[in-house]
Specification:
This protein has about 230 residues and is mostly helical. The chain is built from twelve helices and three strands, in the order αααααααααααβββα.
């Protein structure tokens, strides 16, 4: 229980019903190892927390960025509540260290554990919401999901940022790009770019500038390989 007290201090919430925190930190697989575990697993809390996080993030963006369009806010929200980002935050909070999970499941590949960290974060927010109410949940969400880079997140339209966010979380490396200028009218040059990940070609695209071409290559990598869906629910 002392370890849970440390987590409570980290998120700034002291649970009245400790069993809710224990449930949020219990993966379904653990019940197969400990039949006597009585608080259950966290999937229902994850379901609730998913909605709570979405609502609180949307409300925060709506209030703090009145000049931004609906499309910009939607993209920002999708980035913030993506499995990739929530998994990163969940790991930073040390949720996997506190999580009760079967030994075999803990040994799964890195990307599977990243998804589990994301789900555990949502379950934690669901537990905070049930135990201490929406304002406590808002405090945890705002302190863990929003930082100094938020303006860049809201303004982000370039798929290069999305691709880098995904590849760094999944494989620990960023994509690289090779661009070349094709012949064409001097006032309207044409560039082509190829995106590579660990030496393998993952996308290609063109445009009237290097920036457009590399963005097109990144978008092709996200779309054609289905990676864009990993940044969404």
């Amino acid at each position: 229980m002392a370890e849970l007290n440390e987590l409570e201090q980290r998120i700034g919430v002291s649970f009245e019903r400790k069993e809710l925190l224990q449930q949020a930190l219990t993966h379904r697989s653990y019940l197969n190892e400990d039949r006597r575990w009585s608080v259950g697993h966290n999937e229902r809390l994850e379901f609730l927390g998913d909605t709570v996080v979405d609502m609180l993030v949307a409300h925060y963006l709506f209030q703090h960025f009145p000049e931004k369009t609906e499309g910009m806010l939607s993209r920002a929200k999708s980035n913030i509540v993506s499995n990739i980002n929530l998994g990163r935050v969940g790991k930073k909070l040390g949720l996997l260290d506190h999580l009760k999970i079967a030994r075999g499941t803990r040994a799964e590949p890195r990307n599977a554990l990243h998804h589990i960290a994301s789900s555990t974060y949502e379950a934690l927010i669901g537990a905070v919401y049930l135990d201490r109410g929406v304002e406590a949940a808002r405090g945890v969400v705002e302190s863990t999901l929003f930082g100094t880079e938020l303006d860049d997140t809201v303004d982000q339209q370039d798929p290069k940022g999305l691709l880098q966010q995904l590849t760094q979380a999944q494989w620990g490396v960023a994509p690289t790009y090779i661009t070349m200028k094709l012949s064409g009218a001097e006032h309207r040059p044409r560039f082509v770019a190829r995106a590579y990940l660990k030496g393998s070609l993952i996308g290609a695209g063109g445009g009237t500038s290097e920036k457009q071409a590399t963005a097109a290559a990144a978008q092709e990598a996200l779309t054609n390989r289905g990676w864009e869906q990993k940044l969404r629910r």
